[in-house]
């Protein structure tokens, strides 16, 4: 996947971040690498957010003290991604979050106007209001959104 040059200007606000929605996919690891480069270039914290259950799955709330297979899968996928991108994240403050929420809700609620939200391109599922996660984030986020395309296609960004 071609990676565009990372932005070189530092973030303008007090605690700006690059917020990444990580879905556990193989292409998600490449998106994580790109987001880490953005955070390094901007001198920002990178917050990697994994949500469960997956869009399209029956939504279940976490019950303390009970095992949750979807939560366990999200945690394992996030740990694996952080392990394989360890070298890519050197010099970047990384915060990981596993959220029991729809990805759009979890990601948009974490963003402020000066942040950068990074998501991978949709796999074609349209889980809410006939729109995919990347489309909804682009419409609802209070910040710039970058959608990293798969299969070597160029990225698109919204302001």
Automatic annotation (TrEMBL):
<dbReference type="InterPro" id="IPR014729">
    <property type="entry name" value="Rossmann-like_a/b/a_fold"/>
</dbReference>
<dbReference type="Pfam" id="PF00582">
    <property type="entry name" value="Usp"/>
</dbReference>
<dbReference type="InterPro" id="IPR006016">
    <property type="entry name" value="UspA"/>
</dbReference>
<protein>
    <submittedName>
        <fullName>Universal stress protein</fullName>
    </submittedName>
</protein>
<feature type="domain" description="UspA">
    <location>
        <begin position="17"/>
        <end position="148"/>
    </location>
</feature>
